[in-house]
Amino acid sequence: MPATKHRSGPSPAGPRPFRLWLEVLTAYAAPALTAGTAGVLTHQPDLTLAACTSIAGTSAAVALLVGTWLRHGGRPRPWTTALPRVALTVLLAIVTVGTAAGLGWFAAQWLPAHTPVPAASWLERLRIDLPVSAALATTIVTLRWRSTVKAPRTRPTPAAAPAAAGKTPENEGTR
């Protein structure tokens, strides 16, 4: 039996390309299946319905918006590739979670008070469903996108350039 080689590094072809439509589809299907299954198993019809609407819908919408913004017409913004992966993810998650929390509050509080929309339990769920879905979708899409984009090369600083060439201020005058 021939021995097989085990490679722990990336595949020779590199990471798979970032396909926004696939990310959006996954962002919808994953929470719909997991939360929907939990709703069915725990006999919570409101969770089962929310899994396919507010939870999965929010995840797909956020994945589409964040993915589109990150791609920026095929040319990523320089600062999105210069920031460390975790810092970019945290920054975008804070923005999307804050926005989703504001929308959840708006839907749960403002709409029933100022429009003919009656107060309902599903509106209260939006306070939790929207931010959690936004956080998960943003994190997954940002990390996936960032893994497919090469970080820019950093140029050596002027102080580091002489040291890289073997010249330092200490030995500069000795030659």
Describe this structure in words.
The structure is a single chain. With 175 residues, the protein is an all-alpha fold. Helices cover 67% and strands 0% of the residues. The chain contains 6 helices and no strands. It has helices at 20-41, 45-71, 78-82, 85-114, 121-148, 160-164. The longest helix has 30 residues, at 85-114. 24% of the residues are buried.
Q: Let me know the number of strands.
A: 0
Q: What order do the SSEs take from the amino end to the carboxyl end, as H and E?
A: HHHHHH
Q: Which spans have pLDDT < 50 for at least 5 consecutive residues? A: none
- How many H/I helices? 6
Which descriptors apply to this entry?
6 helices, 67% helix, globular
Write a brief caption for the model:
The protein is mainly alpha-helical and about 180 residues long.
